[in-house]
Amino acid sequence: VAAAPMLGNAVADATPNVRRTVDFHGEHQAGISTAVQDRLFYGAFDLLGDDAGELRTLLQDWTVAAEKLTAGVPIGSPEPENSASPPVDTGEALGLVPAELTITVGVGRPVFVRPDGSDRMGLAARLPPPLVALPTFKGDVLDDFQSGGDISLQCCSNDPQIAFHAFHNLARIARGRAAVRWTQLGFGRTSTTTAGAATPRNLMGFKDGTNNIKSDDAKAMADFVWAGARDDPAWMHGGTYVVVRRIRMLLEAWDRTAIGEQERVIGRSKVIGAPNGSTREHATPNLEGTDPDGKLRIDTDAHIRLAAPSHNRGIRILRRGYSFSDGIDQRTAELDAGLFFIAYQRDPRSQFVPLQEQLSAGDALNEYIKHVGSGIFAVLPGVRPGEALGDPLFES
Ligand code: HEM
After folding, report:
1. Percentage helix, strand, coil, to 5, in the chain?
2. Does residue 382 surpass a pLDDT of 70?
3. Residue 11 near residue 151 (C-beta atoms within 8 A)
4. Would you tell me how many other CB atoms lie within 10 Å of the CB of residue 337?
5. How many angstroms separate the alpha carbon of residue 27 from the centre of ligand 1?
6. Taking the mean position of all CA atoms in its chain, how far away is CA 234?
7. Residue 268 φ then ψ, to 5°
8. Which residues have C-beta within 8 Å of that of residue 71, sequence separation ≥ 6?
9. Does residue 254 come out as left (phi exceeding 0), alpha (psi in the -120 to 50 range) or beta?
């Protein structure tokens, strides 16, 4: 495979969709502004020690492997000459194409400071101020085994086996240095991140992503997603912050809910996805519009009202979530299914946190959802060939 040109995460191949590779290199990591792929393998790792040097070599090893994985090249021999050696590449991607594989890595607050604020491994002075510990929001029922972690790893591809292979091999490289804390598989992307893409549907049956930031909107990406020159710390320049939330949908209750109520709760129509009071999906929601009886068409507690930028001092986020379905909840025999919410932003303190404060306090949707997992990570700046993920963190 020829070395991919420096395209800044552009899709580097004009062959059919499934064959395409996305350049690993660029100012920003791929997998954020990249047009959202169909499948997700997400997970968080805990470092086994408190050694910044070991974290650095792990990120270097991951960089070398990620360059190969995203180009569709095995990370080593799946069949070493010495038959007494285990395979280097585990092999399950042989014969498959990368299908736009992206690998996106972040670091959590516990890498910098312990819960009591003390320095964990000499990196406390590098803690990015936006990387806060998220407050407990109203209604949170977070499971520690689906939350937190030292390192985040997002693998997206249009082929689930490719996403699995990437995560599997990176986890293997980490063995002895970091252990997987939790994982989440996702399917059926729940947001569009590019103009012109049809809006997908979430598991409640509603179009999701209509009013998302589109990644080709450079101004919105600079204003709301990328940490830039004006942001502290300098080492995060080109990076971003991700908040993930495992949100269960209480589908049995939702499925019994009348369509009029479902559309009131969301503030949009089900089939077309038009804001209430309009007939077009992409019509701007009229938050003041009333019906002939003078009643607001988009109700006071409708999800799209409380999440709207005009309701939140202009706040926007880049949503890039996926649906999940993980068997049944043993206590209720209901599907353990919902939205694995992923939101990229420049500063969670002024974006996710106030937004979720609004939503957790008053969203009509709360009757039908439960936040059960949570994570926040500083997503490292992108790398150029010859550089490694995390270099600026250790060098600044
Ligand atoms: C299971 C939980 C959730 C479901 C089912 C859901 C569903 C939806 C739907 C159907 C829309 C309308 C279409 C669109 O513009 O994308 C929407 C919009 C939106 N949602 Fe959610 N959402 C959920 C959780 C959240 C959370 C946790 C946040 C942020 C804290 C959030 C933020 C937004 C924003 C910012 C918009 C766009 C509002 C606008 O500008 O009109 N959502 N969501």
Report:
1. 25, 20, 55
2. yes
3. no
4. 17
5. 28
6. 23
7. -140, 160
8. 1, 4, 21, 24, 98
9. alpha
DSSP SS3 for 355: helix
Cα distance between residue 99 and residue 20, in whole Å: 6
What angle separates helix 160-174 from helix 52-71, to the nearest 10 degrees?
150
**DSSP single-letter state for residue 8:** S
Tell me the average pLDDT of the chain.
94
Give the residue among 196, 150, 128 at the shortest CA–CA distance from 50: 150
The closest of 275, 226, 248, 68 to 162, measured between CA atoms, is 68
Whether the bond into 292 is cis, omega within 30 of 0:
no
Tell me the C-alpha distance between 189 and 166, whole Å: 19
Q: Which atom of ligand 1 is nearest to the CA of 206?
A: 10
Query: The pTM is what?
Result: 0.95
CA distance 353 to 69: 34
- Report how far ligand 1's centroid is from the alpha carbon of 309 (Å): 11
> Model confidence over 149-202: pLDDT tens digits?
999 999 999 999 999 999 999 999 999 999 999 999 999 977 777 777 789 999
C-alpha 362: how far from chain center: 24
265 touches ligand 1 (CB under 6 Å): no
**Of all helices (H) and strands (E), which one includes residue 242?**
strand 240-249
Rounded to the nearest angstrom, the distance between the alpha carbon of 304 and the centre of ligand 1 is: 6
What's the CA gap between 170 and 296, in Å, rounded?
51
Q: What is the pLDDT of residues 210-253, one digit of tens each?
A: 999 998 999 999 999 999 999 999 999 999 999 999 999 999 99
The confidence score (pLDDT) of residue 5 equals 38
Q: Tell me the average pLDDT across 330-342.
A: 96
**β-sheet bridge partners, residue 371:** 247
Longest C-alpha distance within the chain, in Å?
Answer: 80
